[in-house]
């Protein structure tokens, strides 16, 4: 079953399904709706439109002056695609340079000549630049996942797999640079049709290998992969990435989170995983359950410290909201402050960018 986490600013899976279909593009590339459509395509988790994708592949070859591939092979994930590519014996050489790199360079040069250096920079900032960081981080994470799954500690296999990954055209994840150009005409119409219809793909002289899209994608509000009860990114063949607020974690690690104890957190040797445990468990709960004692208490709040082996201590200020909730209660907040903090007032002042001697709020909220 396909799962999609709809993060702020996205539409429903049904709307995403409509947006990832074919159709011609508007001429104005800085249009917010146009960029949003490409953002949705980059994050789409609906099944590939295989017929449209194969049409796009053949059109991309045509635009490059090449005869279309004799065969189009489908893979259920980038991991499976890399395996297919490794096993191919009659695919011929990669034609990625002609199919993807040359058309992109041609279109970029055209726009650069038309707008000038400053104009092109402005064009990029309001189109592809808006999508670049979140999509690029997703691509990098998939690269690492494929390498870890297929190569492990084998450095020779890892080198081979890296080269195969470099030969990929990123399909839906080419959305940032496609968002900066017109894609309803040559030379980018074939590439754009594949990107609207499928995931990554590998063009060779005789064979093209094309990937399905993911079936699940879960991100936090910052756009990082994030899920506490399953894979943050999953493909139809079972290839999956697990992450907590952007940090890669093992699958079995997430299964352990509901049963955490302060002792288990203390004995975790990996400092990064221990921080994840603390975030999931809750700093306030950990302080209470571990019998921690406050370092300082004053009119601004209470300063707490958690000492961690082979890691910097976690120091937090517990503050009480001076404005009551509708039911009359007052909400407690936990503010993480630098490990060198020695008083609650110093910690609260630091969150406002002030020195403690000049921090004197009339009313705290």
Radius of gyration: 25 Å
Between the first and last Cα atoms, what is the distance in angstroms?
45 Å
Largest sheet: 4 strands, antiparallel
Helix content: 40-55%
- Record field, number of beta strands: 12
Biggest sheet strand order reads 9-10-11-12
SSE map:
Layout: H1 13-19, H2 32-42, H3 50-63, E1 71-75, H4 78-87, H5 96-126, H6 128-150, H7 155-166, H8 175-178, H9 189-197, E2 201-203, E3 207-211, E4 216-217, E5 233-234, E6 240-241, E7 243-244, E8 247-248, H10 251-256, H11 262-267, H12 271-281, H13 283-289, E9 296-298, E10 301-306, E11 314-320, E12 332-337, H14 344-351
Helix pairs in contact: 3-9, 4-6, 6-7
Could you explain how this protein is built, in words?
This protein is of the alpha+beta class and 365 residues long. It has two domains: 203 residues, no CATH class; 97 residues, no CATH class. 44% of the residues lie in helices and 12% in strands. The chain has a four-stranded antiparallel beta sheet, with helices on both faces. A hairpin with a 5-residue loop joins strand 5 and strand 6. Helix 3 packs antiparallel against helix 9 and helix 4 packs across helix 6. The longest helix has 31 residues. The radius of gyration is 25 Å and the shape is elongated. The N terminus is likely disordered.
Give a brief rundown of this model.
The chain has 365 residues and is an alpha+beta fold.
